[in-house]
């Protein structure tokens, strides 16, 4: 159970970071697309 929580927290933090990184680079990405791109990689 703990491992699942750690994986979820890590995934959330990475997805949030990737979204912030994409926005910081000035790319025109709508809110939520960062998560979709992250999942498709």
Topology summary:
Elements: H1 2-24, H2 33-40
Instruction: Please state the CA-atom Rg, rounded to the nearest Å.
Output: 12 Å
Number of strands: 0
Share of helix, binned: over 70%
Number of separate domains: 1
Sheet of most strands? none
- Envelope shape: rod-shaped
Average pLDDT reading:
63
* Helical/strand content category: mainly alpha
State the low-pLDDT regions, or none: none
SSE order in H/E notation? HH
In whole angstroms, how far apart are the ends? 26 Å
* Percent of residues in β-strands: under 5%
Number of helices: 2
Explain how this protein is built:
This protein is mainly alpha-helical and 41 residues long. The chain has one domain (2-40). Helix content is 76%, strand content 0%. The protein is built from 2 helices and no strands. The longest helix is centred in the N-terminal third of the chain and has 23 residues, at 2-24. The termini are far apart.
């Amino acid at each position: 159970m703990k491992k699942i929580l750690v994986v979820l927290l890590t995934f959330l933090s990475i997805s949030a970071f990737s979204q912030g990184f994409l926005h910081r680079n000035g790319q025109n990405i709508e809110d939520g697309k960062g998560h979709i791109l992250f999942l498709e990689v």
